[in-house]
């Protein structure tokens, strides 16, 4: 496929017990994108569920690694090699503690900020210069451990807005693919 395709990876943990966790925001966004692409995920030998299709008139491979979050890098590298996707066309969608709940932020490259999924991907693909769509989950309350917080389901009050927030994050992925990072940032960083 090569330079004309985007690889969009949503991060999460496999299995129904994790489905509603904050850490699975990436999977939630990918499910919305799959609906928009009109396809279904199929098992790929790269240890990921994959959908090949079109979004916003652009060729795309949507992927949800079937490994646990901290081992996401292996499937991402295998998919990148298989589809021959340049690193700057690998979009990673993930939960972000340092972004308030309901906000979406986009960035190009950077560190992993303690996110084990990003750390695994950066290590596996040989660098962190890939675009990210960061889904805000906010900080844990009180003294709660961040790792415990992201493995909890969204709170009832958050769930009332969650579907809309996931749709907005999916819009941000499409905007990044079609208009580039700066235009997408101008649109989505201005939003409340």
Automatic annotation (TrEMBL):
InterPro entries, per database record: Pept_tRNA_hydro (IPR001328), Pept_tRNA_hydro_CS (IPR018171), Pept_tRNA_hydro_sf (IPR036416)
Pfam families listed in its UniProt record: Pept_tRNA_hydro
E.C. numbers: 3.1.1.29
Site (described: Discriminates between blocked and unblocked aminoacyl-tRNA): 13
Catalyzed reaction equations: an N-acyl-L-alpha-aminoacyl-tRNA + H2O = an N-acyl-L-amino acid + a tRNA + H(+)
Site entry: Stabilizes the basic form of H active site to accept a proton: 95
Classification via Gene3D superfamilies: Peptidyl-tRNA hydrolase
Record's subcellular location: Cytoplasm
Catalytic residues in the record: 23 (proton acceptor)
Keywords annotated in UniProt: Cytoplasm, Hydrolase, RNA-binding, tRNA-binding
Domain of life: Bacteria
GO molecular function annotations of the record: peptidyl-tRNA hydrolase activity
Binding residues annotated for tRNA, in chain numbering: 18, 68, 70, 116
Major localization listed first in the record, in broad terms: cytoplasm
Protein function: Hydrolyzes ribosome-free peptidyl-tRNAs (with 1 or more amino acids incorporated), which drop off the ribosome during protein synthesis, or as a result of ribosome stalling.
Assembly and interaction partners: Monomer.
Assigned protein family: Belongs to the PTH family.
Name of the protein this chain belongs to: Peptidyl-tRNA hydrolase
């Amino acid at each position: 496929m090569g330079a004309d395709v985007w690889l969009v990876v949503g991060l999460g943990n496999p299995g129904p017990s994790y489905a509603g966790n904050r850490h699975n925001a990436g999977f939630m966004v990918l499910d919305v994108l799959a609906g928009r692409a009109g396809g279904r995920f199929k098992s790929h030998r790269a240890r990921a569920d994959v959908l090949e299709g079109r979004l916003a008139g652009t060729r795309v491979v949507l992927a949800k690694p079937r490994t646990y979050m901290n081992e996401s890098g292996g499937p991402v590298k295998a998919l990148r090699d298989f589809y021959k996707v340049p690193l700057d066309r690998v979009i990673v969608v993930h939960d972000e503690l340092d972004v308030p709940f309901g906000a979406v932020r986009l960035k190009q490259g950077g560190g992993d900020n303690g996110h084990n999924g990003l750390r695994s991907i950066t290590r596996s693909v040989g660098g962190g210069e890939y675009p990210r769509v960061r889904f805000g989950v906010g900080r844990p309350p009180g003294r709660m451990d961040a790792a415990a917080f992201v493995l909890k389901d969204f709170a009832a009050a958050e769930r009332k807005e969650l579907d809309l927030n996931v749709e907005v994050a999916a819009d941000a992925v499409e905007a990044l693919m079609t208009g580039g990072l700066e235009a997408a940032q101008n649109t989505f960083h201005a939003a409340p």
